[in-house]
Amino acid sequence: MSGPAWGRVLGVGMAVAGGTAAAAAGGLAAQRRFAARRAQRAGPAELGTLRSDPHVVVADDGLLLHVEVDEAGPEGAADAPTVVLVHGYVLDLDCWHFQRAALRGRYRVVLYDQRSHGRSGRSDPARTTIEQLGRDLATVLHEMTTGPVVLIGHSMGGMSMLALAEQFPEVVAERVVGVAFMATSAGGVGQLLPGAPGRLLDRAQPLVVAGLARLPWLVETGRRTTAFALTKRIAFGGEVPDSYVVFVDQMISRTPSDVIWDFFPSFRTHRREHALAAYADVPGLVVGGELDHVLPFSHTERIARELPRARLLELAGVGHMLMLEKHEAVGEAIEELLAVVAAESAGRQPEPGRPR
Predict the structure, then answer these.
(1) Alpha-carbon distance 62 to 345, whole Å?
(2) pLDDT tens digits for range 70-79
(3) For residue 332, what are the contacts with CB-CB under 8 A and spacing of at least 6?
(4) Is the backbone of residue 310 left (phi > 0), alpha (psi -120 to 50) or beta?
(5) CATH 3.40.50.1820 occupies which residues in the chain?
(6) Percent of the chain scored above 90 by pLDDT?
(7) pLDDT tens column, 8-65
(8) Closest Cα partner for 339 from 286, 287, 283?
(9) What is d(CA 37, CA 286) in angstroms, rounded to the nearest whole number?
(10) Rounded to an integer, what distance in angstroms lies between the CA atom of residue 112 and that of residue 92?
């Protein structure tokens, strides 16, 4: 590749990581500070404040996974399934704030930070794969749940659920009684940015990753200056409260750049349409945003075609972070799914002493 062409590719890679170090640092930093002040004036910073006693689950390669469990209260149904929430790329379990708040006390809810994200341990790059994420999910289910579960995954979290089904179809058949895929893909992810920059990055991704891995200081400088602007543009489809943008920006900014690059090859090879068959017989929900520029709604439609018992929901004017941007609609859809699961399990007596 010629020198000028390599420069263009490297520039696109910097944009994915958070922009170039030369890009309007002062103005964008001021924008971030202004939004943070406005968010603070609007009310207490509640996003990401829900906590429960932490647990540590040891993955099959020895990595420590951070897990939190919200136990059901007295009002919860004795035979209700455990709800397992699986977050997406460069996020952490706190992204489920609104859904966690709505389910709290009524269901047993298990949340965890995927490897190299949030409070979980940093993975060996060789293990930073969607296949490994499926094994991690299997371990979390084995260690932290007993009985029926409803799996809900966003973005990379939905891919983890497909990797689980691919490697452990018996776990899905025996344990999963409901499933929700949100703003995710079963394969053919290709571009992670829209338009010509995304196509260029997709073609030259191995070179971009190799080049930026040698320049961590430059990448981190660029991310600190421009990540906020990219978050606002890419994560949401319309106007949202400043607190939402600040919240997502903080989660992304906490993810080291080398973790971002480590996952790229696995996204390119993610082809798990066949694994959807494992979920075809259970009640389902497939949700996507009309204006999702990360994983367009066509990915959502392809998943829905393979799940005859799933409800397909398109959220108009909504981007990739739909569980924040339209949390009311997402919450209502989850409640409907759980109601269908409950109706189907009605009449089945819980096993004596079976944990929830």
Answers:
(1) 36
(2) 999 888 777 8
(3) none
(4) beta
(5) 54-189+270-345
(6) 63
(7) 333 434 444 444 333 334 444 444 454 455 445 444 458 999 999 999 999 999 999 9
(8) 283
(9) 36
(10) 8
Banded pLDDT at 348 (limits 50, 70, 90):
low
Residue listed under structure tokens 């996003």? 47
Handedness of CA 123, 125, 128, 131 (dihedral sign): negative
Distance CA 85, CA 221 (A): 32
d(Cα 108, Cα 67) in Å, to the nearest integer?
13
Average pLDDT along the chain: 82
SS3 string, the chain, reads CCHHHHHHHHHHHHHHHCCCCCCCHHHHHHHHHHHHHHHHHHCCCCCCCCCCCEEEEECCCCCEEEEEEECCCCCCCCCCCEEEEECCCCCCHHHHHHHHHHHECCECEEEECCCCCCCCCCCCHHHCCHHHHHHHHHHHHHHHCCCCEEEEEECHHHHHHHHHHHHCHHHHHHHEEEEEEECCCCECCCCCCCHHHHHHHHHHHHHHHHHHHCCHHHHHHHHHHHHHHHHHHHHCCCCCCHHHHHHHHHHHHCCCHHHHHHHHHHHHCCECHHHHHHHCCCCEEEEEECCCCCCCHHHHHHHHHCCCCEEEEEECCCCCCHHHHCHHHHHHHHHHHHHHHHHHHCCCCCCCCCCC
Tracing tokens 């930070």 back to the chain, one arrives at 113
Domain 54-189+270-345 CATH (choose: 3.40.50.1820, 3.20.170.40, 3.40.50.10350, 3.30.70.141) = 3.40.50.1820
User: How far from each other are the two terminal CA atoms of the chain, in whole angstroms?
Assistant: 57
Does the reported pTM lie above 0.70? yes
Pairing type for strands 64-70 and 109-112 reads antiparallel
User: Which tokens go with 192?
Assistant: 């992670």
Greater confidence (350 vs 209) lies with: 209
